[in-house]
Each structure stands twice: as structure tokens, then as C-alpha cells.
Design brief:
Elements (H helix, E strand, L loop, with lengths): L1 H29 L3 H12 L4 H5 L3 H16 L3 H14 L4 H13 L3 H14 L6 H12 L3 H14 L5 H18 L3
Helix pairs in contact: 1-2, 4-5, 4-6, 5-6, 6-7, 7-8, 8-9, 9-10
């Protein structure tokens, strides 16, 4: 037993040394010290958004979101998508940014890309909002993937809380779509 423990200790130390060497190389590539790199890494691992670490003010994030939304409303999908992509990178835990990115991609016919964004919205929203699944269901229907769309729409009904008006609207739409799929419409 003692030999196995010693082997495990040696293996762990070799692994730790390799990780340290990689961190040093990565830090050097980013032009920061290994300690600075570790600080950023730990902040990200504990849930901080990149904009917070970089010192970008929340007001700047909110202003960019407002601009992206205005561009989306004006039908300027490529410009809006570009800003939403930036927002998703720097304020990655904000569900509206992922939903906006998904909507832009969906409007441009990039259904796989839209569903990726909606999946991120669902995850960052702790799977409490049925909207990402509803819009994924629409994308799946556009791709003629009816069985997958049924699953997404049924998920809307499972996750939704009918006592919340915003959920009820989406749940009703999902039920109507499911009924249409069941009758072959």
C-alpha cells in the first residue's frame, strides 16, 4: 500500500509540474506573469465574467447590448450578431446576450449556430426559462427535424411555469406547435 501511495505521489507531482510548465508558457504567450494568469484563471473558474476581470464597466456592457438590440430591431443582423458575439465573450453569463446571438443567427438562417447560442442561454439560465427550448424547436422545424423539435417543445412544457405570464405565452405557443405536429400539419 505504501508503494502505491509513493507512486501516486510521484505521478501527481509529475502532473503538477507539467501543469505549472503549461501555465508558465500560456502566461508568457499572453504577456502576463504566471501569478497574474493564475489570478485570472481562478476568477473565471469561480464565475467572474471576463469584463469584470478586465475592468470594463457594466454600463459599457449595457450600452453595447442596447446597440445590438437596436441593430437587431432594424434588421441589421450581421452588425447585431457581431456585437452579441462580443457580449457573449465578455459578459458570458448574461442570458439575454446569448438569446440575442441566437435570434440573429436564426434570422440569418444559421439554425445550428442559433441552437448553440440558445443552449448556452439555457445553461446560464439554470434551465429555468423555457424560451431557449422554444426557439430551438423552431430552428429544428426549419431544418425539417420534426422529432427533435417535438422533444424541444415538450421540454418547454416541462420546464415552463404556467403561473409566470412570460412562460405561459411560450408554453401555449409550444403546445399549439406540438398539436400541429401531432396532427401532421
Amino acid at each position: 500500500m505504501a508503494k502505491q501511495s509513493k507512486k501516486q505521489d510521484m505521478a501527481f507531482q509529475l502532473y503538477a509540474d507539467a501543469v505549472k510548465k503549461n501555465i508558465d508558457k500560456t502566461a508568457e504567450a499572453f504577456g502576463v506573469s504566471p501569478d497574474q494568469f493564475e489570478e485570472v484563471r481562478n476568477a473565471l473558474l469561480s464565475g467572474a465574467a471576463l469584463y469584470e476581470i478586465l475592468g470594463i464597466k457594466r454600463a459599457s456592457i449595457d450600452a453595447r447590448y442596447a446597440l445590438a438590440y437596436q441593430l437587431y430591431q432594424a434588421g441589421k443582423m450581421q452588425e447585431a450578431e457581431s456585437i452579441f458575439r462580443w457580449l457573449c465573450s465578455y459578459a458570458n453569463t448574461d442570458v439575454p446576450h446569448w438569446m440575442g446571438l441566437g435570434a440573429c443567427r436564426q434570422a440569418q438562417g444559421n439554425f445550428d449556430g442559433a441552437m448553440e447560442a440558445y443552449q448556452m442561454a439555457a445553461l446560464y439560465g439554470s434551465l429555468e426559462d423555457p424560451a431557449p427550448f422554444y426557439y430551438s424547436g423552431i430552428c429544428l422545424l426549419k431544418q425539417q427535424r420534426k422529432d427533435d423539435a417535438k422533444v424541444a417543445l415538450q421540454t418547454v412544457l416541462t420546464l415552463g411555469d404556467a403561473s409566470k405570464p412570460e412562460h405561459k405565452v411560450i408554453m401555449d405557443k409550444a403546445q399549439t406547435m406540438l398539436s400541429g405536429l401531432e396532427t401532421g400539419a
